[in-house]
UniProtKB/TrEMBL annotation:
Reaction equations catalysed: a 2'-deoxyadenosine in DNA + S-adenosyl-L-methionine = an N(6)-methyl-2'-deoxyadenosine in DNA + S-adenosyl-L-homocysteine + H(+)
Entry similarity comment: Belongs to the N(4)/N(6)-methyltransferase family.
Classification via InterPro entries: DNA_methylase_N4/N6, DNA_methylase_N6_adenine_CS, N4/N6-MTase_EcoPI_Mod-like, SAM-dependent_MTases_sf
The encoding gene: dpnA
Protein's name in the database: site-specific DNA-methyltransferase (adenine-specific)
SUPFAM superfamilies: S-adenosyl-L-methionine-dependent methyltransferases
Length: 242
């Protein structure tokens, strides 16, 4: 069995003509990143709610630092889009509003959401926040609503653990990345918030959906992912080896 937790991997970069995936810490990478580098940032950071019992989703996220760095590395006229949990939304709105005059909420609605919360409404959507300036690009070729209704990521698109890897035996691990967003949702964001040839940044790349969408739609990408197994999965997707 392969145990990727034991591999000395941080600092590895996988490169293609469409862009790079860095196996690194998002905060360290941003701290060393040149200013005004990207036309758009589209990302899905940890929600701080312990999704699927994962430790990586329990740590306090320095949203203030991320908002500052996003503004610093974004080119003038660029766009920022972040997915976030309900209780993070206020912090993201507060911090991004320090640097961007225009903000608009977004909802990804999931009609096939499952589960049961006794005495409460069942969660069936995830929030996002779009931040931009007065002169930021926004695609005018179609009408965009601030919500999308799609099913959850499933079927071939839903990446599963490698059966040859030790982690795949972990009880309850039903997917490689539990918060993987549907490609359709990310493609909509890429089309609305960037032009062909633009470079889009995702510092919390997960299994690389942003890179897949960018490549398909004629954009460049730069992504950072701390988890080595996700880095490998993202790279395989980019190369068309799902």
């Amino acid at each position: 069995m392969i145990d990727l937790r034991k591999q000395d991997h941080l600092g590895v970069t996988s490169s293609s003509e469409n862009g790079d995936i860095h196996n690194n810490d998002a905060f360290l990478f941003l701290g060393n990143c040149p200013a005004h580098r990207y036309e758009a940032i589209i990302t899905d950071p940890p929600y701080e709610i312990g999704i699927a019992g994962k430790d990586w989703d329990c740590k306090k996220l320095r949203i203030d630092v991320l908002a500052y760095q996003f503004h610093r590395v974004l080119k003038p006229g660029g766009n920022v889009f972040v997915f976030c949990s309900d209780f993070q939304f206020g912090d993201w709105y507060c911090e991004l509003s320090r640097y961007f005059p225009k903000l608009r909420k977004f909802a990804w609605c999931k009609p096939d959401s499952v589960g049961f919360n006794k005495g409460m409404f069942q969660e069936s959507f995830e929030l996002g926040l779009h931040a931009c300036s007065e002169d930021s690009f926004f695609d005018d070729q179609k009408y965009y609503k601030n919500h999308m209704v799609t099913g959850k990521t499933s079927g071939k698109e839903r990446l599963m653990p490698d059966p040859d890897e030790e982690w795949s035996e972990k009880k309850g691990e039903k997917a490689l990345h539990p918060t993987q967003k549907p490609l359709k949702v990310v493609e909509e964001l890429v089309t609305a918030l960037s032009k062909k040839g633009d470079t889009i940044f995702d510092p919390f790349a997960g299994t690389g959906t942003l890179g897949v969408a960018a490549k398909k739609l004629g954009r460049k990408f730069e992504m950072v992912e701390y988890g080595f197994r996700n880095h490998i999965a993202a790279w395989d997707r980019i190369r068309g080896e799902e």
